[in-house]
Amino acid sequence: HSEGVSFHHFHASKRRFLFSIASFLQKINLSDDILICAHMTTMTSSLRMLCGGYGRLFPHRLADMFGATSHIPNLFTFSRQYSEQKSKRTPLYDFHKSHNGRLVDFAGWEMPVQYKEGLIESHIHTRQHASIFDVSHMLQTKIYGKDRVKFMESLVVADIQSMPPNTSALTLFTNESGGILDDLIVTQTIHDYLYVVSNAGCADKDLAHMKAKLEEFQSAGHDATIEVLEDRSLVALQGPEAVKVLQPGVAYDLVRLPFMTSALMTVYGVPSCRVTRCGYTGEDGVEISVDSSKVVELADKLLNQEHAPVKLAGLGARDSLRLESGLCLYGNDIDETTTPVEASLTWTIGKNRIKRADFPGASVIIGQIKNKPNRRRVGFKTTSGPAARAGALVFNAEGEEIGKVTSGCPSPTLKQNVGMAYVKSGNVKSGKPIKLQVRNKMFDGEIAKMPFVPAGYFIVKKK
User: Fold this and answer.
1) Which positions ≥6 away from 273 have C-beta within 8 Å?
2) Can you tell me whether residue 78 is helix, strand or coil?
3) End-to-end CA distance of the chain, in Å?
4) pLDDT single digits (tens) 253-269
5) Can you tell me the distance from the alpha carbon of 56 to that of 449, in angstroms, rounded to the nearest whole number?
6) Rg of the Cα atoms in the chain
7) Which of 98, 214, 306, 462 has a 20 to 30 Å separation from 64 between CA atoms?
8) Are strands 193-198 and 139-144 parallel, antiparallel or unpaired?
9) CB-based burial of residue 63 (10 Å sphere; 0-12 exposed, 13-18 middle, 19+ buried)?
10) pLDDT tens-digit profile of 38-47?
11) Pairing of strands 88-89, 109-114
């Protein structure tokens, strides 16, 4: 419904037809690979099926019938909630269209899911060279005030107080039950603010949560304020040649900007860019926060420089890249029912925070650290059959059900199926044989160490 036309405006027979397609694919475990999007004016143009095996459909070539895009793992589900509101657009919307981006609705935004090269090509290009991702839909905020660190530490598990200037940390909003409300990156800048980036899909929830807690915090006499950066866009340049692309366009020596550090600089003539060496692909790279009025100029300059080949990439490649790298997708691999310990994210909790036990859900989380949780997030590889998608059941070699898959896809890099699952804690050792139930059939696999591909982060070893 990217044109703002409600699904319910469809003729009843067309609605029944769509639901029959969805029901059929759900039965064969392809429901997490469907996206109904684009222009809801004709039957054929309303159907955009993102189906299994990178276009190899089971049991029929529905993609050929309806003009589908390539397979996109996990990201999009057939939703039974339909909104009549028009999707939001990032400042790069026209830029994506002019470069043949296939736009879809994601978290209320019209975003490029892929470009003409296709998902696999974008994925491989990012692993070998560098790609640009538009992540302007993510929530960017600044936290001001003399008590800003205390305020953020009242919400997250990171030890922000101990972070050196211009360093960043992946952290988690948690609730009093120890559940994860969202994952985010907090940067301790050299200026009078913290810089925070959190997920687009949780933007409204995160902002409401922060504002509610801020009101309590201020009422207690503390000094902190929130600024939402509505005039800033965010572009990720990712891949082993990202710095080769970026260095000629900045005066800053990027050797002095290792993984999870941040600095303000001019990038290819565009001033006041915050460049943070991080990303969601497992590769070296940066995320660049830029004034929205300059983001098209910046993207164009990065794309057309001559120091290394750069291409645009969409949400589809971003998802398969993050999955190969063992990175969580909120709503799939972590949510309010999972704790940091269960999610194998205990490393995000500062040691001083554990000692002080002063973060939301500390009693539950610290209890799990000491006594071990009943389940853990693990990686797995399958040695035969189709990819196991979210919701597929996991069994041990003896046939006992031990868990459930949260993400899975064919790995373009490894040429085999990979995924993540939550399994009972006695089943987390790498190499342990498992079986996965896909389309009512059992397929062999094994627990595997993550990341599935080696990380390419630029990490400077401490002397």
Assistant:
1) 264, 265, 266, 267, 288, 289, 290, 298
2) coil
3) 55
4) 999 999 999 999 999 99
5) 28
6) 22
7) 98
8) antiparallel
9) buried
10) 222 223 333 3
11) parallel
- Nearest Cα residue to 276 out of 255, 295, 294, 259: 259
Cα separation, 347 vs 365, whole angstroms: 12
**CA–CA separation, 237 vs 16, rounded Å?**
43
DSSP 142-211: EEESTTHHHHHHTTBSS-GGGPPTTEEEEEEEE-TTS-EEEEEEEEE-SSSEEEEEE-GGGHHHHHHHHH
Asked whether the beta carbons of 252 and 265 are under 8 A apart, the reply is yes
Q: Helix or strand or coil: residue 274?
A: strand
399: left (phi over 0), alpha (psi -120 to 50) or beta: left
pLDDT value of residue 81: 38
Over the chain, what is the mean pLDDT?
86
**pLDDT per residue over 416-427, tens digit each?**
999 999 999 999
How far, in Å, CA of 369 to CA of 162, rounded? 22
More confident residue, 358 or 83: 358
Only one residue has tokens 């750069």, namely 310
Between CA 361 and CA 345 the distance in angstroms is 14
Contact of 122 with 112, CB cutoff 8 Å: no
Q: What's the pLDDT score for residue 463? A: 67
229-243 CB burial, b ≥16 within 10 A, e <16: beebbbbbbbbbbbb
Task: Compute how many other C-beta atoms are within 10 angstroms of the C-beta atom of residue 193.
Answer: 17
* pLDDT value, residue 461: 84
The pLDDT of residue 20 is 54
Nearest residue to 206 (alpha-carbon basis) of 258, 171, 232, 160: 171
Q: Which amino acid is at 240?
A: P
CA atoms in the 13 A half-sphere facing the CB of 23: 6
- Contact indicator for 432, 446 with CB cutoff of 8 Å: yes
Q: What is the pLDDT of residues 376-411, one digit of tens each?
A: 999 999 978 999 999 999 999 999 999 999 999 999
Short-list 202, 201, 203, 3, CA closest to 83: 3
Q: Residue type at 45?
A: S
